[in-house]
Amino acid sequence: xxxxxxxxxxxxxxxxxxxxxxxxxxxxxxxxxxxxxxxxxxxxxxxxxxxxxxxxxxxxxxxxxxxxxxxxxxxxxxxxxxxxxxxxxxxxxxxxxxxxxxxxxxxxxxxxxxxxxxxxxxxxxxxxxxxxxxxxxxxxxxxxxxxxxxxxxxxxxxxxxxxxxxxxxxxxxxxxxxxxxxxxxxxxxxxxxxxxxxxxxxxxxxxxxxxxxxxxxxxxxxxxxxxxxxxxxxxxxxxxxxxxxxxxxxxxxxxxxxxxxxxxxxxxxxxxxxxxxxxxxxxxxxxxxxxxxxxxxxxxxxxxxxxxxxxxxxxxxxxxxxxxxxxxxxxxxxxxxxxxxxxxxxxxxxxxxxxxxxxxxxxxxxxxxxxxxxxxxxxxxxxxxxxxxxxxxxxxxxxxxxxxxxxxxxxxxxxxxxxxxxxxxxxxxxxxxxxxxxxxxxxxxxxxxxxxxxxxxxxxxxxxxxxxxxxxxxxxxxxxxxxxxxxxxxxxxxxxxxxxxxxxxxxxxxxxxxxxxxxxxxxxxxxxxxxxxxxxxxxxxxxxxxxxxxxxxxxxxxxxxxxxxxxxxxxxxxxxxxxxxxxxxxxxxxxxxxxxxxxxxxxxxxxxxxxxxxxxxxxxxxxxxxxxxxxxxxxxxxxxxxxxxxxxxxxxxxxxxxxxxxxxxxxxxxxxxxxxxxxxxxxxxxxxxxxxxxxxxxxxxxxxxxxxxxxxxxxxxxxxxxxxxxxxxxxxxxxxxxxxxxxxxxxxxxxxxxxxxxxxxxxxxxxxxxxxxxxxxxxxxxxxxxxxxxxxxxxxxxxxxxxxxxxxxxxxxxxxxxxxxxxxxxxxxxxxxxxxxxxxxxxxxxxxxxxxxxxxxxxxxxxxxxxxxxxxxxxxxxxxxxxxxxxxxxxxxxxxxxxxxxxxxxxxxxxxxxxxxxxxxxxxxxxxxxxxxxxxxxxxxxxxxxxxxxxxxxxxxxxxx
Length: 961
What we know:
Pfam families: CCG, FAD-oxidase_C, FAD_binding_4, Fer4_8. One of its GO terms (biological process) is lactate catabolic process. The protein is of the alpha/beta class. Helix content is 45%, strand content 14%. Among the domains are: 208 residues, FAD-linked oxidases, C-terminal domain (Vanillyl-alcohol Oxidase, Chain A, domain 3); 188 residues, no CATH class; 109 residues, Rossmann fold, CATH 3.40.50. The protein has a six-stranded antiparallel sheet with strand order 12-14-13-16-17-15, sandwiched between helices. The chain has a five-stranded antiparallel sheet with strand order 5-6-10-8-9. A four-stranded mixed sheet has the order 1-2-4-3, with helices on both faces. The longest helix has 37 residues. The mean pLDDT is 94.
């Protein structure tokens, strides 16, 4: 039953030209990659900026051939298209009210060449992933935007994103070597292939001729040439990279460099090659506090990239916004109201060069007053705390903003000699226009500063206030100080009306000409960079209506999406929040809605059941990368609690009251299924169960060859293990999962988890205490995930009471063999119990009491979501590294998507989350290990190797001392 099938009524509702577009591309793009339903069109039509457009169609494109076809048809029908990668862009570059072409799969090829000095990347590669590939060569890509863990190469190049360390010397413009470009008519140019260049020059002779004409005009105009050179001495992403006409003579080189920073308005970058830069391991940082901004800027002027990697300016308002956050230095609260700071980083190839550069900094800043002596730290944990101050600035504003307002981050650049005066003048503008919470910080070495403020767009007077403010900002930056209105975030929609103001008519006319030459039909991302509408920055503003306390702080940056197991099938956490806001907005005016909007509301609510609710794994991994720590999974649980109904509540109460009987019945069911499997075989079992599931409308759970057998009775297990008295004591609580689910038929070790756990504990010399009424106990996780909060809390309270009794009021450590259960227990039971899941208990308590002989094989390891949220990844690595010759932590695998029982009831979620697992293992493993039985079922199913608890691995290689 395909709940995502393209509905023809959605196609018929499109304007005629879009219907025709769909029919013409349908020969190459399958329907499952064409999105026409209103829910996902709204969801995908957002980026990190403060504008909202809803595309008519979203096309998930996977290959160059597909992009070529999409562009050919768009040109023939004169239909505008916009490209979107990660959508972390802050200026509205990645949204469209026409065709949105979304990079989906197959855009992640990454090839490291020339001993790490060159890297070839497709546009879907995340920046941090590229750097991970280069790590062993001690190299990195030049651009280092703050969003590098989430932003994709396509966006990094298209926006000429820079960052804290790259400056103007190592950005995409300076480090690009070659690229593959698809133009408005579908033509492909490979700048590394002379044959491709020759064909392009023939087919696009007019473009080449116009580029050469613009080049010659600029070179003959000494004043314009000098203006261009001067303006690109500092960071500048306002308009196009017309410095290419000065820096290069060859037309292909000019075209290649014009693509950098073109924001998807000149063509599609299908592949890019970068020269890489050195990555130094030796680093040190210092937070230098100055009496005021002027002194801090004087300090910046004394620093140089010859000996400084980064110098981040933070004004007093910035420091105040984070001073109460846990882990911040206490002295931040005591600073004077005018204080300002520079966070300075130096690096070197070795300790000698590092210390030399530290001295260079101290010497350069001599004579400039500081509040405290300059003190560098080389200890990673300490300097990371300092950088957390800088990283916390943007989310700090977002976290405290008034609900319904938008967080706006702008970035400008000033010539260094004007920086102090300009920043003070900018602060005066904040005060003048009532932006009291606005903060200023930025990459001071480049004269680049960001300012962050909150804005209400809900009424005309607030929009007018924003307009007055931005007009004066433009006057200040462009006219008074000759700076850049956009330094690194790209022109986008918000600065498009002001490009001519910064550059003047002559340079702007050149930009208009080159846009026309590249895009004669004006169909590639129209409205971005070149826009004749003087009010474009005030239109299509994003609404963020109050929706729910859990999600209202969301700024829609998309940093959550990297972890989401449903991101490739339905929606992401950002999408869910966007849709909930749309539903809230419609509901707020439900009585006055026209019929079409009432129908939209009904459709959104109906479709959200599957696309937003059923396919949410509620794993909470989204919160680990969210700047304001939003757990969208918690919101999904709340929504589920609203819809469980009277029957659901009665059912949950019944199961909780008869928990031992229910788990016993589940065990009997597993035994019966395994018995049938043994009799009729895997092939017949799969056919019968698949047919039954289809007939039932997917109501019957999916069967897998890795379905577990019934677990061995715990009483039977205990009878086999002697329990000697010992000074080392542990309370062992076997989770209901491990008490019920045994190994699968094909698992390597056929013992139950409690058997293995007891074996290890005895080898380590532990006396084991097990709650007597264990069969009635549960941590409440199964109930919580489905929205049965009352029963979840009741079950956990009963368990807590029992654990307190058997652990001597918390003095004895408690081991639970399942990570998600332990995570909930730690959250709801407080600090009076010493609660451990397997990895942490093994690491902290057992290894020192065991003789470990590593198994001579490569094993696969999956770190569960709960383990990551408990901060156990490093201990996972330590334990598995001690127990196996080699370990594989598959790249790209985040949450497995099994989510308790979703692997049975919504198996497509598990399948999508683990789609790359088998390829990642490359046939190198025969066994895998984790710490959640249900996760292990899904991992086994999609890798076809035996995944079991990490307890099995330790028991394999451990002997008693």
